[in-house]
Amino acid sequence: MKPNSPGRKPRIDWASLLVDRSETDRSALQAALTLAHEVIQIWDASGKLVLANPASARIFGHVEADQLTQDQVYGDCLQENGNAYRPDEMPVARVLATGLPVNSQMMTICQTEGKAIWLRIFGNPIKDDSGQILGAVITATDITEFIEHRQRLEYLASYDALTQLPNRLLLAERMRISLARSRRMKDMVAVCMLDLDNFKPVNDNLGHKAGDELLREVAVHLQESIRGDDTVARIGGDEFALLLCGIHKVSECEQTLARILSRVSQPYLIAGQVVKIGASAGVALFPGDGTEPDLLLKHADTALYQAKEAGKNRFQFFDRKLDMRLQAHRVLLRKIEKAIRSAEFVLYYQPIVDCRKGQVESIEALIRWRHPVLGLLAPSEFLPLIDQDELSTTLGEWVLDEALRQIAAWHADGIALDVGVNISARHITQPDFTTRLAAKLAEHPPEISQRLRIDIAESTVMADINATAEVIRKCHKLGLRVAIDHFGVGYASLLHLKRLVADTLKIDQSFIQNMLDVPEDLAIVGGVVGFASPFGCQVVAGGVETIEHLLTLLELGCNLIQGHSLTRPMPPEKLAAWLRTFQPDPLWHLSTSPRPSRDHFELLLAEANHRAWVNHVIDLCQQNRYIDAMMDEQQCPFGLWLNKPGTQHFRKYDEFRQIEQHHNAIHQIASRLGAHHRDGNIEQARIDEEMLLQEHLNLLSLLKTMRGLLSHKPRPLPFKASQETGP
Amino acid sequence: MTGYEPIEWDDSFNTGVAEIDEQHHILVNTLNEANAKLAGDVSIDFVEEITQDLLSYALYHFETEEGLMQEYGYHEAGTGDAERHLQQHRSFSSRVVAVRDNLRAGMPISREDLITFLNNWLVNHILNTDKKLGAFIVARRAAGG
């Protein structure tokens, strides 16, 4: 290396580069430089251009390379960020000053008509052996096409092609910026999701082109109703998102949204037709409802859903408590889904007994959830949660499979009984319900498959009577029996009953449970039993809890009994044991009539009336609300019955006259009881209450004797009578 | 009957167990919402929706409480409180469903009963049963460090 003497300007004999060469060499170099699409420039150490190829002349617009300065060549150029260059920032100056290369620097030359040329610049120093900088080589590539293409792609990626609104991607970017600014300014940002109400019909009726035009118009309206700092983006279909910035009070946001919704719902002229459309919006506020963009959008979406649910054409703010509830609900649904897979559901079975024949008639399958934390759950705890959900069908399918499996298992053990399964409304309205059912049945021989009984709630039947009638018809074709459950509470009329041709009516438990106290319920039970048989229906009474209920039902002619008075629902292995040891209760013979006569029924009804009145009086006395008007023994329901002309034919019985005396006595005791409570004489009141109940029992017993007298000759009972039942 | 009065949260409702209290807030909120909705003349669909919301959140909440009972050995304490507590949980949904079914059957008088029953149930349950559990858990947590 040869050291340079200080102060001596390094020189390069530029002429020799091109001149001191053979003609061939020079031509070759010239040809190469001329051909190159890249700009190639050679600068000397003093910053003068000494050599440039035609590409350089074309792009920078100079004629002769000779002695131009960098200002003259690069004067119109801007940096990548759009700023002008300071002289020392220009590539030539930088290379000469630092002796270091410049790599891939971007630069634009703005031409007239706003068109820009983009260049990628490389620069390298020219040094002698000692490292002295002799000059610089600069190359530049025209990358305008590439940059324009990239900008186009960026635009396409950030804007919605139909409406020219920002899309989800750009929305995310704008949100990031808005939230950051709001953090600094300590104000709020409203993140709104907006969705057109009933957009689909417009699309369907006027066509997709009209639908697109409407979306474009809506986009214009939205854009016009927000401020410059705000953003409206289209994020899919007829869904838009809005960012409203700089909010200080919730009321500001409310006003803005009201304005936007009213603007959007102004009529549009689309394809020559006036189209009106509304919109719903859900709003989440930063920072109150969340600080992360994704969460805010999710919460706004939840609020939008609520706005839709609440009746559309409105906006709704995100409600955290409501959201937590919805989340809890989703968690539960997932758990139920998992519980089906991991066999946490089980079927319990409850027998239905024909108490007149003393035989088990059939079995009802009842679902239970063996919950890992909560233990054994009754259907009322989980079925209502899924009755709007697809899961109720999945669970229903499982119940059918499991019941069939159990029937087959019992069949192998010699137990041959029909098993009723409850089918939910959602399940039975699946279009392929009977097809799937048929496939399940086909997996078993008829002696098993035809043991299945389909129980449908009356309310389900009435929700779509035509569809259910069809399902019932198909079930019959498959050889299955069908029961209508909870009968009496679902508004079915006799006309419907004629069409439904169900095999069994199961009277709703509420009537059974109340029939001893509520005369109207007793009348309903009696009525159902009366009209069922002409229709060829069996009647089952469910929810029979006491022997008293059971005997009354037998007297009404309802022989098929299910309920706690017989046994609670139990797991299948226990049921097998229960069936083995089952014995008819001798008490069942005590019922006096196999089929009630009119008189018989009237006595039952009178008894229910009296029972209700006594309970009522005792309640009133205890609450100190007894009034003397109740003392009148002619005015209570039982008194009215005693004295009406139609009852007088009972007078031929001694018991009837005794009943009248007991009835009078009861009213006198009741009056005393009321007075004692009023005077705070609790001790005496207690004695009176006991007397009242005793008289009441005496009266009931007389009524029962009379019923026995009316059905002179009970029909012989089919099972072996116990001793106390006479011939 | 003051069936239509909303329940106002006061500090006496706090059990001292944060997760339980938070859920109680939501339950009270749900009830008050149901209360407000049912005060108007409403359809059976509304009642269905409200009872579903309520049953759903109640089950979720019961699982939290009963999970905590197991975690802290409430049953092993042998006071009978755990059994009574579970009994109240188990009867809750059957009562709600029974009232809902009555409403389905067109007995509007039960609407007031529903609200009264729910309000009483919740307030009594929180004030008595849950606070006992809360005190138990707080003591266990303190003992455990």
Brief overview, please?
The complex is a heterodimer of chains A (727) and B (145). By secondary structure, chain A is α/β, with parallel strands linked by helices.
How would you sum up this structure, described in words?
The complex is a heterodimer of chains A (727) and B (145). The longest helix of chain A is centred in the C-terminal third of the chain and has 29 residues, at 682-710. Mean pLDDT of chain A is 87; it is low at 1-10 and 713-727. In chain A, strands 15-16-18-19-20-21-22-23 form an 8-stranded mixed β-barrel, surrounded by 4 helices. Chain A has 28 helices and 23 strands. With 727 residues, chain A is of the alpha/beta class. Chain B has 145 residues and is mostly helical. Chain B contains 4 helices and no strands. Chain B has helices at residues 18-39, 44-71, 81-104, 110-143. In chain B, helix 2 (44-71) runs antiparallel to helix 3. Chain B is elongated and about 50 Å long. The model of chain B has no long low-confidence stretch (mean pLDDT 83). Classes of the chains: A alpha/beta (727), B mainly alpha (145). Chain A binds chain B through residues 321, 324-325, 328-329, 331-332, 371, 373-375, 377-378, 380-382, 384-385, 387-388, 459, 486, 489-491, 508, 510, and chain B through 25-26, 29-30, 51-53, 55-57, 59-63, 66-67, 70, 86, 89-90, 93-94, 96-98, 100-102, 104-106.
Helix content of chain A: 40-55%
Compute the number of strand runs of chain A: 23
The span between the termini of chain A is 142 Å
| Rg from alpha-carbon coordinates of chain A | 47 Å
How many E-type strands of chain B? 0
- pLDDT average of chain A, as an integer? 87
- What is the end-to-end distance of chain B? 46 Å
Helix content of chain B: over 70%
Q: Largest chain interface and its two residue counts?
A: A-B, 27 and 32 residues
